[in-house]
Amino acid sequence: MGHEKTLTGLIPALAGANLIYGPGMLESGLTFDFAQLVLDNEFVRMIKHTIGGFVVDDESLAVDVIKAVGPAKDFLTQQHTLKHVRSHSQPEFIDRNRREKWQAAGATDSYTKAAEKTRDILQNHQPLPLPEKVVADMQAIITETEGELGI
Question: pTM value?
Answer without folding.
Answer: 0.70
